[in-house]
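As a warm-up, study this chain.
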Amino acid sequence: MKKVIIISAHPDDEVLGCGGTLIKHRTLGDKVDWLITTGIHENQGYSLERVKQRQEEIGDLARKLNINKTYNLSYPTTTLTDGTLIEMIPKISAVFQESKPEIIYVLNRSDAHSDHLITFKAVMACTKSFRYPFIERVLMYECISETEFGPALPENQFLPTYFVDISPFLKEKLELMAIYKTEVGEHPFPRSFRNIEALSVFRGASVGFEHAEAFQILKWIEKYK
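Now compare it with the structure written out below.
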């Protein structure tokens, strides 16, 4: 059994980037925790009904993926900045010390959304081997509607180096995404079911699968056990 943690800046990131892989972890009996760094709040203009709906969506997804524990830092969405890091890093550190993940799935560092970038920076500050010796793998995932809209600069490219066959799990991945009703639109909206499936087809064809999810390896430590 592997100990896994999936990092989302916003609920739905985890399904878009890792939904099939998380289903696979569940199927294998791995312990999966979930860390969400932001949330929506009434003082931001969201209705109480919408805030409650989002909490229900999170709970529904956690149940369907058999999430062991959900951690939510609840920073107001769209507000993360470099200034947030000074208090955010210790909070993520505390989560990691409790969860003790062997595998971390983290957002792509060059995504268009600043919440993704700051979340990435905070997570990576908590992956030093001498402080977190339990970490064996750190994998960066792509997130439709954010990764492809990042600045088209050489240093910002998402370079897939690790692929997971999600062919048996694509249907359920789409069903999980349907939990987030307000986040899905009709094609050619980026977060459409057609686009999610198209990316899985493209990634799969790159490595000989029907459907795949792609990751960029940031750290992979092989321990003698």
